[in-house]
Amino acid sequence: MSKGLMSSAGKAAAWSAVGSWAGLVGSMLSLVVLARLLAPTDFGIYGFVLVTLAIPEAIACNSLNESLIQRQELTRGHSNSVFGLSFFFAALFFVIIAVSAPMIEAFFGQEGLTPFLWVMSAGLFVGAFTAVPAGHLQRRLAFKQIALVDVVGTLVAAIVGIVLAIVLQNAWALLIMELSRRIVRMLAFWWFDRWMPSLSFSISNLKDLAAFNFASVSLRLITVLEKSIPQAVIGMFLGPAALGMFNLAMRVQEQAGTALISPFGAIALPFASKSQANRELLHKLLRGAITVATFVAYPAFLGAVAIAPVAVPIVFGEQWIGAIGAIQISLLIGIRRPTSTFDAGVLKGVGRPDLVLKIALICLATMIALPYVAPYGLEAIMWLIWAQKMIGWVLGALAVQRVVGFSIKQQVFAGASALLASIIMAGAVILTSARIPEHVDDIAKLLLLVVLGALTYPLVLLIVSPRTTLRRIRALVLLFAGKKERALQTMMNSPDNDESSNFAPEVSDAAKS
User: Fold this and answer.
1) Is-contact 177 160, C-beta < 8 A?
2) Which residues lie closer than 8 Å to 17 by C-beta, 6 or more apart?
3) Which pLDDT score, from 0 to 100, does residue 413 have?
4) pTM for the full predicted model
């Protein structure tokens, strides 16, 4: 059973990676084109819409289906109960937003916001119809189908968004682009799951899922508030242009995280749920997944920080120069994602979403400082968010150590060599950038820095941790050769995939198993 479950996890992570990487290409290309066609103010207006709908979407669309993934025995009544609740909340919030849209417009002081709110609130019904089939597919580890859905949805949305940006040249392009992505996902998930919605369920079905749903919805709400409160404060204190820059900075980091980390983090919840009684197997997955994720995530985030001053004007346009500092800090926030993503998924999977909720509440409390920090500008707000995420990262690591026995030392050293090599690489790129003559063309300068980083990182890794580096390279070669299961098995089943042998000889034998 353990071997079969590990094999399923390997296939799931591999397909999730393929979907995320393919989706990243489409998302980043569309983001670059849209950033050049639209102004920061357009992104800010779209940001006001997202802030308003954040809590309704968290309740109606994005949290109730997690109980379907976590539950060991699932009936049709359970699925119907999740759909019924999702549809009820979608209808409730749709009416509330439709009535209160003019007041929301007045609150933000953004004229013309009401029509955007009316149209986007209809997307709540799309999310309600998507939740159950999406949960079913994730529960079955059907990440091949999920990857296909994400790629098609991203490509369709990119085409729609770019065409409308050329024609309309306003925030409507962003809104309709997002709605088109959600509609494609809904239709595709229905097709693959072949599940038909129904309101036929019992009170006992609701009770079975009540405890987990309460914790899951509460956690999602807090996560949404963590993201929405800074957006609201920035919009009110610094204006829509600053909000647009903030949204771009966070979107760059989130899309990078989705491509580099989420493919492995996505399997944490269903895998942890299925292996609750086998801690050795769970530890093996965590060590392997963190090692793989950090291998690509650390150099990507820190390398992007180093080249951002040169890359942002070239990629997004001169109008986004003011966002460089915010983008760099946002990328630094992403450094903690390889472990924090797995921590949250594992805690939910073993039935402890309450711990994730408590950590999120502690982090949310730091947002009380936002109004005091806002007068110092956008970058000051970004540093506050960075501090908040670091606190959450430490608390999450402690919780995983307490619940499943996977120590902080193992979590840290699983990616230690990658972090060290990435820091040296970023330092080399920054020092070189400062010494390149001013007459050198910006594009040539950017290419030189990228090549320097691409050569420095693996060279340092080979010096610091040769065995682990060669194993990682082998896993990547297998992945690109189409041997997805073997690629993941190379990382997860290797007896020395814990890098503590290079950095902490005193780690226990159990940690090295």
Assistant:
1) yes
2) 263, 264, 479, 484
3) 77
4) 0.68
Q: pLDDT at position 81, please?
A: 80
Q: Which of 24, 486, 5 is nearest to 263 (CA)?
A: 24
Under 8 Å between Cβ of 150 and 137: no
Compute and round to an integer the Cα radius of gyration of the chain: 23
CA 392 to chain centroid, in Å, comes to: 15
Report helix, strand or coil for 299: helix
- Residue 441: what are its φ and ψ, rounded to 5°? -60, 140
User: Which position has the token pair 């230690």?
Assistant: 416
Which string of DSSP letters, residue by residue, matches 221-252?
HHHHHHHHHHHHHHHHHH-HHHHHHHHHHHHH
What's the mean per-residue pLDDT of the chain? 79
Query: Are 77 and 207 within 8 A, CB to CB?
Result: no
Q: What is residue 334's three-state secondary structure?
A: helix
Give the count of alpha carbons within 13 A of 312, CB side only. Answer: 20
- Inter-helix orientation angle 279-316/484-492, to 10°: 120
pLDDT score, position 54 = 85
pLDDT of residue 510: 30
Q: What is the pLDDT of residues 171-198, one digit of tens each?
A: 899 999 999 999 998 999 888 887 777 6
Q: How far apart are CA 398 and CA 189, in angstroms?
A: 36
